[in-house]
Amino acid sequence: MRPIFLVLILVPGWGTASFSGAVFAQTNEAAVLTVTAAKPEERQWPETIPASGWLKPWHEAIIAAEIDGLRITEVLVDVGSIVSKGQPLARLSDETVHAELRKQQAALATAKADLAKAKANADRARHVQGSGALSGEKITDYLAAEQTATAGVDSAEASLQSQNIKFAQTTITAVDDGLITSRSAQLGAVVSTGTELFRLIRQRRVEWQAEVSARHFPRIAEGLAATIVGPGDQRVKGVVRLVGPTINTDTGRALAYVTLPAEAHPPVGLYVTGQIELGMTAALTVPEIALVLRDGITYLFTVGEDRRVSRVRVETGRRKDGKVEIISGLDHSAQVVTTGGAFLSNKALVRLEEDGR
C-alpha cells in the first residue's frame, strides 16, 4: 500500500495578518473618557474633633422687684428689646413712696433744727464752764443734748437715704447691656419683693456648650479655636473660654464652653454641631469631586503610564475648602483622576485632558 503524503500549502500573509490584526486592535482601542488627573497635595490642616451642644446665654440676668406691694404702672420694653445698663424697663406706682420721702425730708429738717439749738446751748455751756454761771449738771445736760441731736440728724439722714433708695426702686432698670429674652411684668400687677419681671442676656453674648468625647478631654484647653454650623449652614467661629472640670458619668462626655462673637447673634436654645481645632498636622489631600462612592465604599481612580485606570479603596478624614484628606489607600506619587471618575470602571483606558488626544 502506498503511503499518502499530505502537502500543507502556506498562503503568504495569513498568519502574520492575524497576529498584526490583534496588535492593531489592542493599540488602537478607543479611550472610554477624557479625564483630568493630578497628584495628591500635602497640606497643613488643623486637627479637629467633633462636638455638639446647645447655644446658651453667657450670663443670664434676672431682673426682679426690690420693693413690695406696689402696682406696675408702665412696661417700657418687650421680649427682643436691646437695652443698655440703667435703662428704665418698667415703673411702679410711687405715690406712697413719694409721700414717705417728703416725711423723711421733714424729719431731717426738724433734726437739724434741734441740733442747731442743742449746739448753741452746748457752745454757751462750754464758754461759761468753770465760771460758776451754770452748774456742772446743767453743762453736762447741754453737752449730752448736743450729742443726742447730732445722732438724731445722722439717723434722719439715713432714713431719708433709705427712702430715696425705695423711691429709685419704683423704676425697674437694666442691670447691664443686653437683650431681653423674657418678660413677666404685666401692667396693673402688684409686685412683691423678688418677683421676676424680666430676663436679660448680658451683653448679648451667647456661648456654645459643646459636648466632646471623654477621650479628647486631656487635649482640650482654653484658647483653642472652634467652629459651629448654625442656621442655614452659616459657620460661626469662636474660642474655648473654659473647659468643664468633670466628665459626665452617664454620657461619658465633657463640656467645653465656647465664646461666640456678639455680632453673629446666634439664636439661644438651638442645638448645633461643630468642631474644635486642636493643632496643625500634615494631610494628604485630593479634591472632593475625585471621590467615587459605590456600595457605601469610597474609591479613587489612579492613572498608570499605560493610561489605564486602577480603582483603589481609600479611607477619608478631614475636609476643608473642597479638599478631603486621604488617610490610607493612596500612594503619594499616584496620578489621581480628579474629574470623570464616576463614569469609569477598573482598567478602563482613558485619555488625559492635557494629552490632547
What is the compact description of this entry?
The protein is an alpha+beta fold.
Q: What is the overall pLDDT average?
A: 87
Query: What is the CATH topology of the largest domain?
Result: conserved putative lor/sdh protein from methanococcus maripaludis s2 fold
- In CATH's first tier, which class of the largest domain applies? Mainly Beta
Q: What portion of residues belong to β-strands?
A: 35-45%
Helical content (DSSP H or I, runs of 4+):
10-25%
Distance linking N and C termini: 67 Å
Domain count: 4
- Counting H and I runs of at least 4 residues, what is the number of helices? 3
The main sheet comes to: 6 strands, mixed
SS class: alpha+beta
Using only C-alpha atoms, the radius of gyration works out to 44 Å
Poorly predicted spans: 1-27
Total number of strands = 22
Describe the fold and architecture:
With 357 residues, the protein is α+β, with helices and mostly antiparallel strands. It has four domains: 30-45 and 283-355, conserved putative lor/sdh protein from methanococcus maripaludis s2 fold (Beta Barrel), CATH 2.40.420; 49-59 and 204-279, Efflux pump adaptor protein, beta barrel domain (Elongation Factor Tu (Ef-tu), domain 3, Beta Barrel), CATH 2.40.30; 61-93 and 170-203, OB fold (Dihydrolipoamide Acetyltransferase, E2P) (Beta Barrel), CATH 2.40.50.100; 95-167, Orthogonal Bundle (Helix Hairpins). It is built from three helices and 22 strands. The chain has helices spanning 14-27, 95-128, 136-168; strands spanning 33-38, 41-57, 60-64, 70-75, 82-83, 88-92, 171-173, 178-183, 190-191, 196-202, 206-213, 225-229, 235-248, 253-259, 271-287, 292-294, 297-303, 309-313, 315-320, 323-328, 335-339, 350-352. Strands 1, 16, 17, 18, 21 and 22 form a six-stranded mixed beta sheet that branches. β17 and β18 (309-313) form a beta hairpin. α2 (95-128) runs antiparallel to α3. The longest helix has 34 residues, at 95-128. It is rod-shaped, with a radius of gyration of 44 Å.
